[in-house]
Design a protein that fits this description.
about 80 residues; alpha+beta; 4-stranded mixed beta sheet; 4 strands; about 40% helix; elongated
Length: about 80
């Protein structure tokens, strides 16, 4: 199982990052500095794969099934199950 950032098919990274940035008002527990640091990391290091790509990665790796079990309410991250 993996929990990873995921884009809907057809969404590019800049659109995904824009959706990430729109979450800011809902993250009340973070200070402005903490949010800025976290968002800086996300913009530098997160490269979401699409739904189809995650399924293809599982199949290409030899897994019998690839299931997306959970999507966060923002649809920015998903929990994937890969089974042999």
């Amino acid at each position: 199982m993996v929990f990873e950032n995921t884009s809907p098919d057809g969404e590019d990274r800049s659109t995904w990052l824009g959706r990430w940035d729109m979450q800011r008002p809902k993250w009340h527990a973070y200070t402005s500095d903490e949010w800025t640091r976290m968002a800086g990391h996300v913009h530098a290091a997160d490269f979401p794969e699409t739904l189809s790509t995650w399924r293809a990665l599982g199949q290409d790796a030899g897994f019998r099934s690839t299931e997306d079990l959970y999507a966060t309410p923002t649809d920015l991250f998903r929990l994937w199950s890969f089974a042999t």
